[in-house]
Amino acid sequence: MYKSTSRQVIRRLQSTKVQGQVIGIDLGTTNSAVAVMEGKIPKIIENAEGARTTPSVVAFTKDGERLVGIPAKRQAVVNPENTLFATKRLIGRRFDDIEVQRDIKEVPYKIVKHSNGDAWVEANGEKYSPAQVGGFVLNKMKETAEAYLSKPVKNAVVTVPAYFNDSQRQATKDAGQIVGLNVLRVVNEPTAAALAYGLEKTDESGVVAVFDLGGGTFDISVLEIANGVFEVKSTNGDTHLGGEDFDIALLRTIVERFKKDNNGIDLSNDRMAVQRIREAAEKAKIELSSTLSTEINLPFITADATGPKHVNMKFTRSDFEKLVEPLIKKCIEPCQKAMKDAGITNSQINEVILVGGMSRMPKVVETVKKIFGKEPSKAVNPDEAVAMGAAIQGGVLAGEVTDVLLLDVTPLSLGIETLGGVFTRLIPRNTTLPCNKSQVFSTAASGQTSVEIRVFQGERELVKDNKLIGNFTLTGIPPAPKGVPKIEVTFDIDADGIINVSAKDQASDKDASITVAGTSGLTDAEIDQMVNDAEKFKDQDAKRKAVIEIANKAESTISGYESSIAEHREKLDATLLKEVETEITAIRELTAKALSEDSTEADGEALEAKLKELETKSMSLFEQLYKNAGGSEKK
Questions:
Q1: Number of domains in the chain
Q2: Based on the domain organization, do 48 and 171 belong to the same domain?
Q3: Which of 60, 112, 159 is nearest to 103 (CA)?
Q4: 120 and 183: one domain?
Q5: What does the similarity note say (predicted)?
Q6: What mean pLDDT value characterizes the chain?
Q7: Beta partners for 182?
Q8: pLDDT in the model for residue 569
Q9: Most buried pick, 495, 547, 592, 608, via CB within 10 A?
């Protein structure tokens, strides 16, 4: 068993209490969720549509309206090129990355190269960073929490895949900042799930493996839980493996089979058809976790000279398992590496927790059972555990939860480039956070007065095979023979896994440093611009909502008047009745205009003024009726 962590260390690592409510957000590739602590219990908050998870989908209509979540997903088939999904797979990535180039071929929207080399997306001719799109989803989660709590929310704990690198973590924090969220902590998804699992077990101890196969990423973490301390021992994974890949495998098969059965008709360039197939593939994948076969029926998918064509295909669970077997096998090696790094065998693991929607697939469960030699636990909800764990960590930071401490690790080794392009590690992977490490280096040439410090993240021995995450130059070194100057390089990593690197010449006391938001990320100016854009949309959305509410009120009001007029028409004053009916016709036209996509605030104001006129005239009309009725009763 592992050495226990001393209580003094724990107290030192406890965060200072924050002011205000802290929400926990699972910003997922496919779906997102938000939770809050109610006393000592985390609670998932339902969105406006009554669902406990929200699709991580953002769409832009032709009229410039932005849709997020279920409304965005519903219209994807008719607007595929402006519907953004699975953009988390692009967050913090360079456009030239192999994974990004692969994604370009698989999605209906445009992935473009930003001026700094990052992968961005395009919709309706506007370019957005993946962090900005994530921000729109985070904002939806924020609004969901605010509606439930009936108060503004500023603080959040947001989860990320454990195998996210520094650029991806920083981009996730940027996403929160864009929508005005103070992201107190970025927590690894499997660690958050372990918190949700272990909250009621703070007096128990043991080793837990969290197998997290979600919509776009795969993580495996090994943790030791003892007396409320959750200590991550190792983590591994693949940031480009998840349910989206399973959908794509089935989608490709359907397209190929259709081509074969229909004289070579290729649907792959028909964006609307591909989006219909994508949605059907996702539905079939989910169904095959609980049934042995399913049918995919898509009428009128296309047409040629011989008439309309339809997709009618049957898939068995066995067919699907064979199709995605290579993807499932990709999960095995990271699990073995995680156990090796933690210094344990599968027999020493007490419990295996399944997280992420794909962990429901029977073949995945069977694979996990083979890897770890035991039946996985079903103690947590795979879709909700991560958000609940984030809320628990939020409770810890707010001082509401006092008997839990989280000790996470850095997922990848960190170091610098030394002579010959060698990667010299300063911080090995799976080092507990926060951490600080220094090492002394020297110059490679005589008379050298400056050194460039190039910071890399990865596990390969040469820097060319690892990821450059930042670089800076230390100048003003006094000229000396090579090997004489002493340059101290220090790595400092905070609890979010954000890295600060500094270099200091011990002779001259000259120093330089960098916080690695890195070569791949957003500038402060870009973040400010996005914050302003988010505010602009917020006002637009609020104004549009107000106009729609007035239009709905108008519909209801005139409907009520029309019913009363129909019932009492013979008894009403003809002149007043004509005036009221003219007003109703005018209001109906104004209502149609207010409900159109290009309506403005002025349309709402005009409609409201007309409604008041109608109410005044209707009062006079029906007043006469009630007087007459009163007179009849007296007689």
A1: 4
A2: yes
A3: 112
A4: yes
A5: Belongs to the heat shock protein 70 family.
A6: 86
A7: 155
A8: 84
A9: 547
